């Protein structure tokens, strides 16, 4: 039987581990969070993934039962059982600076348990240069040499949360190894789950840099359309309609504006690149402007809410629908919704928020749609979710009293006219 060890069992690592389990691999899943390991051992996860009609919860239970997935805290047991190890632990950004401690402590654990002939594939998104300059030297402190005693490759991770299983399979994977054997073994391993092309680059740094650039282009694209929203608003045009029309051009791919840019990937991209750029004396002016612009969107949306309340003399109470960092996600890490809610509350607005997918508790979060809409006139839509039926807003607030501020293109002005509610869109 083939064994593989996946280290870090979060939004990437868990579905990745289960993808190998579905291919008949025995997967040793390691995570340093004891609470998460206990949840997984009980067959629990709040992730919203599915594959061929089965939810990630069902897939997890299947593979716990048949023994193909073993979640654990212990690197030693996992690394003794596996020749192939994939790492998906994060590098968060704190105060604009990448924080390497999770990756460093993971590298140290691997070093302590490293054996001859093992292959390590790093799949975390990293500051360009990290695999060679941070990760590899720690592994070699074991006394074993890369390319002779053990093998190391970097393969970028491109999945979008909510489509993880499908994208592991159908998205080309880019990778590079530190030697021919590293590359060949990494390609063979990735091909177990990836039906698409495995793109082999000339160096690890090419793959690391391409990955961050992929995320940066989304940050800049979103900044551009959010800026342009101010132009279309002044022209009394719907930005979403303008973009839909522009995107019928076959070489145009504009993203849509929203309440800001959240999650783990896109907001970190500029800071990963900037860390390296500063070291080399390169200025990333445009990228920085885009990042700062996107960081300012929650304040802009909060202003829009306050101005709307004042304009219509509405109660200073808002029902927020959707707090995840994007539509149909359970992830609220760096979610702009949290910042908008904080600003609104600081400015004296009472907020009740409903999001059936987000697990984390907040004092402003309520358990039902009905509770959120109780005694409010203003509804702020920040994310779509299964379990939020936007049309039902008007069963709780009479349309003649409802003011909807829509950042997700749920309603059109035509809907507002027909139903008789006030609609403010970005
Ligand atoms: N979430 C995405 O959609 C996505 C997409 C592409 C790439 N990525 C990248 O993949 C990586 C993982 O992202 P994620 O969203 O899965 O993060 P996550 O926070 O959901 O999961 C990371 C897991 O690693 C664990 N961990 C941290 N330090 C550890 C250690 N030393 N040893 C063992 N486990 C440790 C944490 O407990 C956590 O469960 C990041 O580099 C991210 O940038 C994420």
From TrEMBL:
This is GDP-mannose 6-dehydrogenase. Residues 319-413 form the UDP-glucose/GDP-mannose dehydrogenase C-terminal domain. GO terms for molecular function: GDP-mannose 6-dehydrogenase activity; NAD binding; oxidoreductase activity, acting on the CH-CH group of donors, NAD or NADP as acceptor. GO terms for biological process: polysaccharide biosynthetic process. Keywords: NAD, Oxidoreductase. Pfam families: UDPG_MGDP_dh, UDPG_MGDP_dh_C, UDPG_MGDP_dh_N. InterPro entries: 6-PGluconate_DH-like_C_sf, NAD(P)-bd_dom_sf, UDP-Glc/GDP-Man, UDP-Glc/GDP-Man_DH_C, UDP-Glc/GDP-Man_DH_C_sf, UDP-Glc/GDP-Man_DH_dimer, UDP-Glc/GDP-Man_DH_N, UDP_ManNAc/GlcNAc_DH. Belongs to the UDP-glucose/GDP-mannose dehydrogenase family. Its EC number is 1.1.1.132.
